[in-house]
What does this fold into?
Amino acid sequence: MSGHNKWSSIKHKKAAVDAKKGQIFSRFGKEITLAAKQGGKDILMNPRLRSAVAAAKAANMPNDNIDRAIKKGCGELQGAAIEEILYEGYAPGGVGILVACLTDNRNRTASNVRNVFEKNNGRLASTGAVARQFHRKAHFLVSGPGLTEDKLLELLLDAGADVEDVNMLDGEAEIIAAHDAFALVAKTLETANIKVAESTITMVPETLVEARDETMARQSTRLIDTLEEDDDVQAVYTNLSIPDEIATRLAAE
It folds into this structure.
């Protein structure tokens, strides 16, 4: 898992730079709109909305934009209907990929995703072929002075949260919990004044596919990076594992 975790960390730091781009506000806006549509505009009673708003504010998205997105979701403002679509496919070497999209134009999104796979040596898969290899989990990245895996585990287990794993990496702690424990974990961290850098429902693979060589790793990461650049793509999940030495070379490119 170490290679996979190191690459995940590199991707997370890259995302912090990308958050300066206006594109990220569009993604947050869609997520907020859908969360409000599905669970209502009360942020205290809607964990998905609360997470989306917190992430948007962390990226300095203006409050007016956030308010408009919530109102669109609740039908208080006009706007195109947003729907969730999950695409499944494979990168070179049999690496599984899930592409989570929020879109107001299904045909445009399907065409864009298909083109990215075809131009980057990948292929789309039938429904369920890849998704069955993943499980929905609550995912948090937190930081703070004196945090350790043992302290976080004790805090969350005492609160009754169904926590599955806690890992420290580069001064941050990654928390994986059952997807229905999302609200409880978020509330527990908030009460303990622990800074949350990222909180989301993610897809965690049962097993990892290790990159055999640098070429396979580069082709797979290029496919993933290109998918993430599409405005309709909210997240890309993969079972790719990259050995530390290869991940370090890729990060230096």
About this structure: The chain has three domains: 2-73, 85-128+208-240, 133-205. The first strand starts at residue 83 and ends at 91. The CA atoms of residues 115 and 232 lie 14 Å apart. Strands lie at 83-91, 95-103, 123-124, 134-143, 163-169, 172-178, 195-205, 209-210, 233-238, 240-241.
